[in-house]
Amino acid sequence: MTQSAKPVAPIWCPGCGDFSVLAAVKRAAANVGIPVYELVLVGGIGCSGSIHNFIEVNGLHALHGRLLAQAVGVKLSNPSLTVVAAGGDGDGYAIGMGHFMHAFKKNASILYIVMNNETYGLTKGQASPTSQIGFEGNVEPPFHAVLAALSIPAPNFIARTFSGDPKGMTAILEEALRFNREGRGFAFVEDLSPCVTYNDTYKLWREKVLDVSKLPDYDPTNRNTMFRLVYEALDQGRVPIGVMHRPKESGPNGLEQKLVGAHPGPAQADIGLSANLGAYQKLIGSLA
Amino acid sequence: MTTPATRSVPLVETTGPGESRPPMELADLSVMIGGQGGDGTLTVSDLLGRYFLRRGLYVYTSRNVLSRIRGGHADASVRASRDPIAAVKSQVDLLVAFDSEAAEMGRAELAPHGFIVYDSTTFHLDLPNSAGFPFATLVGGPLGQPIFKNTAAYGAVSVLLGFDAEMTREVIQERFRRRGGEALEKNLKALEIGRNAALEAGGMANRYSVAAGDAHDQILTTGNQAVALGFVVGGGRFFAGYPITPATEIMEYLQRYLPPLGGVVRQAEDELAAINMVIGASYAGARVLTSTSGPGLGLMTEGIGHAATAEVPVVVADCQRVGPSTGQPTRNEQSDLAHLAHLGHGDFPRFIVAPSTPEDCFELTIEALNLAERWRVPVILLLDQALCQNTATSRRFDLSKVEIDRGKRITAETAATLAHYKVYEFTDDGVSPFAPPGTPGLWSEVTGNEHDEWGHVSVNPANRVRQMKKRMEKMVKARDELPPARLFGPSDAKIGFLGFGGTSGPILEAMRLMEKRGIPTRYFQARTLYPVPVHELDPFLKSVEVAYVVEQNYSGQFARLIREALPWHYEKLRSVLKYDGYPFRAPQILAEVRELANAFRAPPILPDGPEVVDG
């Protein structure tokens, strides 16, 4: 057996919420039965983006904010791969915001995990797009990724988890991975992952989390309902978690399914001259 | 159809000589067509180009449009010659004007023997050697729309230039066949209306003639189309880009070519996404391309550095336009070179290659794909607006010469034989074997962080030095595999030219003009610009007494790179620069050379005298 790169020890502080994500990703991938060599983990920049170094996987460490663009490129190039992008709230919602919103629209069958700690931990605790008003002098209202995600009418899987509930997170990541592997489209999971050093929200979140699936009106196939439930929870000072959108559509709606169809994908295509000679001669012959 | 007798407008307004006269034979003909954006000037130049191509002539068409969808002055020109040409002629022989502004602007460039054909529907010219036909009115009645006036003008021009009637029709059929039925029918009718008007006017037929040439089996295409075809044939299967003039056509062609072959083309949300999507797709194992122009290149810069450090092969086509900032989107310049040579933060390798003709674009795109994968280095395909969008005759692309080199790629078969897989393994040539994700039994860490051989983040100083050398020395080790320069002119000539890309056409034409005056010159057409090909430049610069570096920018970017790499030749270099947005014309190069030679008190190489015009 060929020796490949071995995982290294995490750089995270003891107690960091990202440990729960690492454990849940490993367990979910194993439960779904994805061979290591077919799993690609695209990391962003920040504490959370280094996750691919701590697990046996094909790791691709992207530029700050660009992990979704690279992950979509990987998936469209070889649709048989299982592609997970993982990064933080600064990476995804500040510098990477353009790609974040377009990812829902594109609907490529990849899983995007944002470890939201409401701060820039690696650069030592500045306010991030999700910081509450008053944190480190922040005067801007926090960005709410689930509300933004629900606003785009595409058949995406949308969920929110909490690092204090690793079992619930594993179940949701498993569902997301299966959703991707069926070619149904984009899966977005925001994990509430406290930064124990600069913004320790464990206690607050433990008290305030609200599993939306327990609410009487819960219907994850209905965006209107879910938007209202999330908004009402926020208004009551609660922190909503759970599956926020589970599309009714069950077909292969993933972008890669529409583009590549029956072909094996750009990475697997036979690009030899002899295999394509007829097509090439026709193209060149069409010139005046 | 109304008969000429009942028309309310005069059929022809001509102040030129009406009597029959022998045609004026031209070896090199230039036709300019001007009007408002939307008048169809480009269609007329395209039709004329197709006709001349059938006559075995070398053809070059150029366009001068504004960055707006409709309206504003627009003109196109087509040149046909028995000699190979790839530049705009200095003077216009025949001007076709759809409005008075086009007539005014075109007159400034008209040769003394030139003639103006204009649409007299809206204006009148009181000039000798002009003829007005109410094209819009003539077609508007029978065809219901005045838009066919451009095809009628093509018909009138075909009479003036003594075109073969059947071949003139075939060109219309070829051009409009794809649009089919009604469009083809109406254009054929418009052609006849235009031809009849010119024939009935008298004195119009055969005013000029161009003898058929022997340039057969040529094609007429643009650099952008050639790049797209090169990408497909070179095995490229993934493209991501963002619309930007003058690069957009590469994406548009690929949207047509790639999907049937199982390839993917994505219009990204911005250039940041485009470069990062191609990085992801290349990492997964596809051959990739993105294309852009100055403003997009700025956004892609961080990504190109990332690709070089992570050692993920990418090819970036930079279709240069006038910069900086939004600059002049539809105009020509070669001013991204300094940025590209010094691209990005930190030190990293890159290859910059520059084709000069459509055929060269086709071949160098394939070469760029091979180099990128063979060396796992970003390759910049450096183009300029004139090369990208002007059409030129080119030899038919040769598929038998195409080779695909995927470098040290680990396949499913070879993977099983490996004891270990280190994605950044140190090797003699600095290139590590690579296994795309999905290769059974192997995985890796690919990163833009400094890393050790396994791809693990590393701050070890000794490892940092080794990895830097591994990457940077590729630029030295690849030297003999990079595209060689092309040399033109006698090897004992003492006057040299240096240039690249779209200036090659005007330089070669200037050399012919100088040769006619008994002054031999040499030309070094650089096809690898970075790393600067010192081993090629040194013997060339030794062989000449003075070298004129002809380029389209303000600061002499190419000359500066050469001086930096070969400081011992500093004194021999003279910059011939143009940055007004228009490509060089051969006589302009001659005039500059004469002035520079005098300014530097070099021996006079061209006598002072009247302005040089085409021979």
Detailed description of the structure:
The complex is a heterodimer of chains A (288) and B (615). By secondary structure, chain A is an alpha/beta fold. Chain A has one domain: 3-Layer(aba) Sandwich (Rossmann fold), CATH 3.40.50.970. Chain A has ten helices and ten strands. In chain A, the strands form two sheets. In chain A, strands 2-1-3-4-8-7-10-9 form an eight-stranded mixed beta sheet, with helices on both faces. In chain A, α1 crosses α6 (166-181) and α3 packs across α4. The radius of gyration of chain A is 20 Å and the shape is globular. The N and C termini of chain A lie far apart (55 Å). With 615 residues, chain B is of the alpha/beta class. Chain B has three domains: 4-216, 3-Layer(aba) Sandwich (Pyruvate-ferredoxin Oxidoreductase, domain 3), CATH 3.40.920.10; 221-401, Rossmann fold (3-Layer(aba) Sandwich); 484-599, Rossmann fold. Chain B has 20 helices and 24 strands. In chain B, strands 1-8-7-6-3-5-4-17-10 form a nine-stranded mixed beta sheet, sandwiched between helices. In chain B, a hairpin with an 8-residue loop joins β4 (58-64) and β5 (73-81). In chain B, α4 (149-160) packs across α6, α7 crosses α12 (358-375) and α17 crosses α20 (586-599). Chains A and B meet through β2, α2, α4 and α10 of A and β10, α7, β11, α9 and α10 of B.
> Can you name the CATH architecture of the largest domain in chain B?
3-Layer(aba) Sandwich
The coarse overall form of chain B would be globular
Q: Would you identify the CATH H-level superfamily of chain A?
A: Thiamin diphosphate (ThDP)-binding fold, Pyr/PP domains
Structural class estimated from helices and strands of chain B? alpha/beta
* Beta-strand segment tally of chain B: 24
Using the alpha-carbon principal axes, give the shape of chain A. Answer: globular
Low-confidence stretches of chain B: 1-10
- Which CATH C-level class of the largest domain in chain B is it? Alpha Beta
Mean pLDDT of chain B: 93
**Total discrete domains of chain B:** 3
Low-confidence stretches of chain A: none
What is the CA-CA span between the terminal residues of chain B?
Answer: 46 Å
- At CATH level 2, the architecture of chain A is 3-Layer(aba) Sandwich
Largest interface: A-B, 62 and 76 residues
Question: What is the CATH homology-level superfamily of the largest domain in chain B?
Answer: Pyruvate-ferredoxin oxidoreductase, PFOR, domain III
Strand content of chain A: 15-25%
Quickly count the domains of chain A.
1
Oligomer: heterodimer
